[in-house]
Design goal:
By secondary structure, this protein is α+β, with helices and mostly antiparallel strands. The chain is built from 16 helices and 27 strands. The relative contact order is 0.10.
């Protein structure tokens, strides 16, 4: 009995100790969580103090160009002040936008099954009409609109229900079929929307917070599609079209020996041209410089009888056949007539585009990269920086602040003549915004590119909370700051800075890298005044002749193919270069709206709808218009000797 009581008492004591241990562990966990929260709050307040100190220093300084470096991350907007005595509106740094990296594998898109939803004929026609009347959707191809309509799912809500809540993350676009909805912002009514209208379309481009609330005024019937389905449709149709065009080109004997990347580029510049029954596509004896591939329908080839002047039919060509091949080789006079039999669609390329594209791509492929002397110097640098740590640097001052990063001017402790810029990024923000891929890509690209017109990244560090990037320091200031203070530049200054940017883009494009965030905010000046590209968070190595689909860039600078999710390559940088030239000469970009969606719709109208200021000369305007063509017209510019 005594033994049993002792064992029982011992077991009770053990359970009590285990319970006490569990309570203590839970208490420690709660304490650790509290410490993490307090440290985060402390970090936030430290950042605020640095931001305020930075702004205070700027106010105290003269109106000279601010010593600066690219300090903002891809998703932040920095605060700025007007130069003294300026009557211009407050000019703020623009916010760059990036969609989350796509989970779609382009190689498997043709196997993806999209869900279609049954619709009455009336509903189908209403959805199509609504999409075609929308400023954004109307720029999509007819086949894409039909597929989007087919994949829209039905949704019904009762009066008073909230369709979209201001401040929520959005991923769905809607077409209203029945009923009425009210749009409000911060409790104030903006408008009412009735049937046959599209709303919420910005959400299918990238993840963003809703800017207004939409509430049902009556019982309503909606049709909806999510961003994932929309992007799948756009990527798949684009890839299928590119594959078909490439197959057409591969069937032409003159093109069979061309590499795959060149065939892809040729496929990109093919223009769809439509003809009706009886239309002459080419006439015998006429001059011509275009080559045709039949993608739909059939044509009749005939030659004129020299005795009777009558057209004698020779043969009929159908889908996949081609004609006019000799025009690409310099033979101008057509030896036969070709007429459409019924409706016909042809893919067309002209001689000049063909020659520039093929020649430009050969130049890129034959280009020599870094020589032995440069490689030896880079290896010596790499050996030195691989041995340094964060403890080897003294912080001199803060060069710049952003919402999620800061840039410090640092010096080596054992060599005060060597200064660098240390960019500090918060790990938590990178994770919360799903930008791990962009950060890793930025590091990888910057470590491999070595150009006098691109800022150097020497090495990176990390600890439990931050990532650190040790960069070349450029104390000439930001081009954005200089432009803000001066208002605009003349032709000669613009030509100089544009030349620096072209050198940087040519270096990147020759290596299959696209930049994707060109703007004055991402250009800094060294101590000699030369311009360098900074901030490679959106840069991506896609390879020659390849495309990528992630929506990213600054709204005023993004190319139409990025907005329409058609897939983009380095020609998107040429579009942005045209916007940059316009802004340097005039002080503001050509496409500006009160919100991103309005800006995108203005961009889709094209550069020809823009009224150029008188200060932009005719030659500069012509250059801008050449750079800001739509994609198929712009492709050849990326492969000329000047690279844009």
């Amino acid at each position: 009995m005594l033994v049993y009581m002792a064992v029982s008492k011992g077991g009770s004591t053990l359970r009590d100790l285990q319970l006490a241990l569990q309570l203590k562990i839970e208490e420690l966990r709660q304490r650790d969580a509290l410490i993490d929260d307090l440290e985060l709050e402390l970090d936030t307040k430290d950042d605020l103090i640095r931001q305020l100190q930075y702004e205070l220093d700027r106010h105290r300084s003269s109106s000279q160009v601010t010593v600066s470096v690219a300090e903002t991350t891809n998703t932040e907007e920095a605060v700025t002040v007007n130069p003294v005595g300026s009557d211009e509106p407050l000019r703020t740094k623009r916010q760059a936008i990036s969609a989350e990296p796509s989970a779609l594998d382009p190689s498997q898109l043709t196997d993806v099954t999209l869900t279609s939803y049954c619709k009455s004929k009336e509903s189908s026609e209403l959805i199509q009409k609504a999409l075609m009347d929308n400023d954004f959707m109307k720029h999509l191809e007819h086949g894409q609109i039909l597929t989007i309509m087919d994949c829209m799912r039905p949704t019904s809500l009762t009066k008073g229900c909230c369709v979209i809540q201001e401040g929520d993350d959005g991923s769905t676009v809607y077409v209203l079929e029945e009923g009425m909805v009210e749009v409000t912002k911060q409790g104030k009514k903006l408008c009412s929307i009735g049937p046959e209208k599209v709303f919420g379309e910005l959400a299918i481009l990238y993840n963003c917070t809703r800017t207004a609330t939409v509430t049902a005024l009556t019982d309503i019937k909606l049709w909806a599609i999510d961003r994932q389905d929309f992007q799948t449709i756009m990527m798949r149709t684009g890839l299928i079209k590119l594959s078909q065009y490439t197959d057409f080109l591969r069937s032409v004997p003159s093109f069979q020996s061309l590499p795959e990347d060149i065939l892809s580029k040729l496929a990109d510049v093919l223009e769809e041209t439509h003809y009706s029954d009886g239309d002459y596509i080419i006439r015998q004896g006429a001059s011509g410089d275009t080559f045709f591939i039949i993608s739909q329908g059939q044509v009749k080839v005939s030659q004129q009888n020299s005795d009777t002047d009558e057209q004698v039919p020779e043969k009929t060509l159908t889908k996949g056949d081609w004609f006019g091949e000799q025009a690409l080789k310099g033979e101008d006079v057509r030896t036969a007539s070709v007429t459409a039999v019924g409706d016909v669609t042809c893919l067309v390329i002209d001689r000049e585009s063909f020659k520039q594209l093929i020649g430009g791509l050969d130049d890129v492929n034959n280009k020599q990269c870094d020589n032995d002397e440069v490689k030896a110097r880079l290896q010596e640098e790499s050996d030195f920086f691989s041995s340094v740590t964060l403890k080897d640097f003294n912080i001199i001052c803060t060069l710049g602040m952003g919402g999620f990063s800061r840039v410090e001017l640092v010096q080596l402790k054992n060599d005060s003549t060597r200064s660098f810029a240390l960019k500090v990024l918060k790990k938590r923000h990178i994770l919360d915004s799903s930008q791990q891929g962009h950060i890793l890509s930025e590091r990888r690209i910057m470590m491999e590119v070595h150009s006098p017109f691109i800022i150097r990244l020497y090495r990176t560090f990390r600890d439990s909370k931050y990532l650190y990037m040790l960069l070349e320091v450029c104390l000439g200031g930001e081009l954005w700051t200089l432009l803000r203070d001066r208002g605009s530049f003349d032709d000669s200054i613009t030509r100089f800075y544009t030349g620096c940017v072209i050198e940087a883009l040519a270096f990147l494009h020759a290596r299959g890298i696209i930049y994707r965030d060109l703007k004055p905010e991402n250009i800094i000046l060294d101590h000699k005044g030369y311009a360098k590209l900074v901030d490679f968070g959106f840069a991506k190595k896609v390879g020659l002749g390849k495309k990528t689909w992630t929506f990213c860039g600054t709204p005023e600078y993004v190319a139409p193919e990025i907005i329409l999710n058609k897939g983009h390559d380095n020609s998107a940088d040429c579009w942005s270069l045209g916007i940059l030239v316009f802004e340097l000469l005039s002080g503001s970009p050509p496409f500006c709206g009160s919100d991103p969606m309005k800006t995108y719709n203005i961009i889709l109208r094209g550069i020809d709808m823009v009224e150029f200021p008188k200060k932009i000369t005719k030659s500069a305007a012509n250059l801008i218009k050449r750079l800001c063509r739509f994609e198929s017209e712009r492709q050849q510019l990326t492969h000329t000797d000047s690279h844009c």
